[in-house]
Design a protein that fits this description.
Layout (H helix, E strand, L loop, with lengths): L9 E2 L10 E3 L18 H14 L2 H4 L4 E2 L6 E2 L2 H7 L8 E4 L3 E8 L13 E8 L6 H12 L2 E2 L6 E7 L2 E7 L4 E2 H6 L10 H20 L4 E2 L8 E3 L5 E3 L6 E2 L8 E2 L3 E3 L5 H6 L1 E2 L3 H15 L15 H5 L9 H4 L10 H14 L10 H31 L14
Parallel strand pairs: 4-9
Antiparallel strand pairs: 1-5, 2-17, 3-8, 5-6, 6-7, 7-10, 9-10, 11-13, 12-15, 13-14, 16-18
């Protein structure tokens, strides 16, 4: 059973949905967008590698807001528990569906995590493997091995799992706002467009998550960064989800790892697609693509656009270096919400992320610093406007002086 290009979810509604622009270089092909093949290492090997890496890493020193646990701290659910939590996987609890299977909304007690009645306790997202899935056991184990040990405010929390006979399920915290993809690209009267401030908040949160993965002593390469894998809580805090393709970074002084090419069209770094060489900064390229989507409100790949415009990076990357042309590519739904300087800085860091040579790309820590500077600039602007308003409000009216005419 192997890994594949593409996300585990394909759209059923506003939560847990994704595109399926998938590619793979494996030998097997079933003619679908989600095609499976053997990866270069098994999940068991991945687990032992990760355990060894964890014993050597001191992540707390590098990032006090995150840690790598020695062993997964996960609840082991029974299949009957999860049937009860979802009302026997009732259709009205369905959140999404894709290559892995279906995702359902369930309810559990906040303290004991035992199943509870709908609307009582804590809502969770339950991913149920389709027995015919080509993604299967390896990605299921990868999720448990990585996300079960990684703890950070900007990574989706894996609550537990179930492995009972042929039933494979994963239980996550429920991100009620769904994916960034849905908010950026769904044009619906009931869905309010994301403001510039919220988009910046989401970008910063996702950058913190990736930076955490990259700054541990044994770096974790996420490998499938895209808008559909960024989930949002009720306050639009971003959390990275779906670690089925995650891989440990290079060791022993190596610059990259070599592996089968897996990911999503439009987001995968060019050196990875061309050679199978996976760098930590291959993730940075994917982040740059998402930044471009955030700025423009356009998909990374859209075959409905005219020829020459279907690949967003190929189409708009040259424009990012032209200050006067920036306004023309910014999402019109954000007009008046950002300063020209903020747009320019966002464009500059996006362009750096999209460098063809991974050596020339910034680290995620550096990207995060730039995004935080843009956010700080926004705060200063608001304070300036507030001060100006207060100054006007507090100004005492001058007494009216009647000047008598010298001519009586």
């Amino acid at each position: 059973m192997g890994n594949c290009w593409g996300s585990l979810f394909t759209g059923a509604n506003n939560s847990y949905t994704t595109n399926t622009n998938s590619i793979n270089t494996g030998t097997s092909n079933n003619g679908s967008n989600n095609t499976g093949f053997s990866a270069t290492s098994t999940s068991t090997a991945g687990r032992s590698q990760f355990s060894q890496a964890v014993s050597e890493a001191v992540v707390e020193e590098a990032n006090p807001n995150g840690q790598i646990l020695e062993t997964p701290n996960l609840k082991v659910f029974t299949f009957s528990d999860l049937k009860a939590a979802t009302k026997n996987f009732k259709p009205d609890t369905l959140l999404g569906e894709g290559g892995f299977g279906r995702v359902y909304k369930g309810w559990v007690d906040e303290k004991t995590l035992t199943p509870s009645k709908s609307g009582i306790g804590m809502s969770v997202a339950i991913k149920k493997l389709n027995s015919e899935s080509m993604q299967g056991l390896e990605e299921w184990q990868s999720e448990v091995n990585f996300l079960g040990r990684l703890s950070h405010p900007n990574l989706v929390k894996l609550v537990g799992y179930c492995w009972e006979d042929k039933e494979l399920l994963l239980v996550y915290e429920h991100m009620i706002k769904g994916s960034l993809e849905n908010h950026l690209f769904r044009r619906h009267p009931s869905v309010e467009p994301l403001s510039w401030d919220i988009r910046l908040k989401i970008a910063i949160g996702a950058a913190r998550g990736l930076s955490f993965l990259h700054t541990s002593e044994k770096k974790v390469i996420y490998r499938d960064f895209k808008a559909s894998n960024i989930l949002l809580d009720g306050n639009y805090n971003a959390k990275i989800s779906d670690f089925g393709l995650a891989k440990l970074g290079p060791a022993g002084g190596e610059s990259h790892v070599t592996t089968r090419i897996m990911g999503t069209y439009g987001y995968a770094a060019p050196e990875y697609v061309a050679t199978g060489h996976l760098y930590v900064k291959s993730d940075v390229y994917g982040f740059g693509v998402v930044l471009l989507e955030i700025m423009t409100g356009l998909r990374a790949l859209d075959t409905k656009r005219p020829n020459g415009q279907q690949n967003l990076v190929e189409w708009l990357k040259p424009t990012l270096s032209h200050k006067r042309k920036l306004k023309n590519i910014m999402d019109g739904r954000m007009e008046g919400q950002y300063t020209p300087k903020a747009a320019l800085q966002a464009a500059e860091v996006t362009l750096k992320c999209l460098e063809s040579d991974p050596k020339n790309r910034p680290s995620m820590k550096e990207v995060l610093e730039v995004l935080e500077q843009i956010e700080a600039m926004k705060v200063k602007l608001k304070k300036s406007k507030y001060s100006s308003t207060q100054s006007t409000a507090n100004r005492q009216p001058q007494p009216y002086i009647h000047h008598r005419s010298p001519v009586q």
